[in-house]
Amino acid sequence: MTEFSEAAKIGLSPSGLEVVLRQVGAERYHNRHPYHQRMVNGDLTRGELQAWALNRYCYQAMIPRKDAIILARSEDPALRAAWRLRIEDHDGEDGWSGGIAKWLHLATSLGLDADAVKSERWALPATRFAVGAYYSFCAERPLLQAVASSLTELFSPVIISERVPAMLARYPYITEDTLAYFRKRPEQASRDSDFALAYAKKHAVTPELQQSVIDALVFKCDLLWAMLDALQHAYGEPGNVPPGAFCPEEAG
Fold first, then answer.
1. C-beta of residue 33 within 8 angstroms of C-beta of residue 225
2. Are 53 and 181 contacting, i.e. CB atoms less than 8 angstroms apart?
3. 156-160 long-range contacts, Cβ below 8 Å, gap at least 24?
4. Residues of the chain below pLDDT 50
5. Domains defined for the chain, CATH in brackets
6. Which pLDDT does position 21 carry in this prediction?
7. With 1 labelled, which of 106, 110, 111, 127 sits at a CA distance of 20 to 30 A?
């Protein structure tokens, strides 16, 4: 399936599995993508940043739904107790005081209409397919793989540490208030990834299960990469915006 497909064939120790998982992130996480690199270098137009925020909203809004699926599938009270914190992080106490609301604030601070963002009607087709694929993966694959797919959060603090200071320095219309979503995310992501990593190391007890964990992380990295591929294709080159998708010049 991947260049990592032989990694667990003979069996790895828990620490050895972690080494491979971190290698996957080092090689495939989307902080290496050209769209992200253009973002941190200050090279995106306002319209490209709007497109990123709008399409990423679709992903953010789906996260508590896929987490609810994982929670419902688990027979382990400890997993359920830990996993429900993820839903609270995104939905808040009333549904609109958590991470999703903060991401919507990011999008509207960039000049987008809140109702248009929430409707997701301007999202790229590839975004819709990617978001749906992730939801289906967590609903249909073995629970261990569903949990392991969240291990991209191991690398989330890295991309945030690159993104936030660069955006504040290089885009004069972006403020700390614009990026309020990111204030708590490194701490939340570290908490969640520590739990998911420990769970994967505990339950991936055969070479086959270890490989399934590795493959789940590869799948998730590929999915996040593909979302940026779609943005780069649609907005990084003129004339490639799909019919019905967000057009910066029409958004105002």
1. yes
2. no
3. 156/185, 156/186, 156/189, 156/193, 157/185, 157/186, 157/189, 157/190, 158/29, 158/31, 159/29, 159/30, 159/31, 159/36, 160/185, 160/186, 160/189
4. 1, 252
5. 14-238 (1.20.910.10)
6. 98
7. 127
Rounded Cα distance between 47 and 252, Å, is: 10
The answer for 29, left when phi > 0, alpha when psi is -120 to 50, beta otherwise, is beta
- Sequence-ordered list of residues with C-beta below 8 angstroms from that of 15, at least 6 positions apart, any chain: 201
Those residues whose C-beta lies under 8 Å from the C-beta of residue 224, and which sit 6 or more positions away, are 29, 30, 152
Predicted pLDDT of residue 149: 98
Determine the pLDDT at residue 249.
76
Q: Contact at 8 Å (CB) between 36 and 215?
A: no
Count of CB atoms situated within 10 Å of the CB of 83? 22
Distance CA 132, CA 5 (A): 25
CA–CA separation, 219 vs 148, rounded Å?
10
Spatial distance between the Cα atoms of 71 and 52, rounded to a whole number of angstroms: 29
**How many residues are there in the chain?**
252
How far out from the chain centre does Cα 200 lie?
A: 19
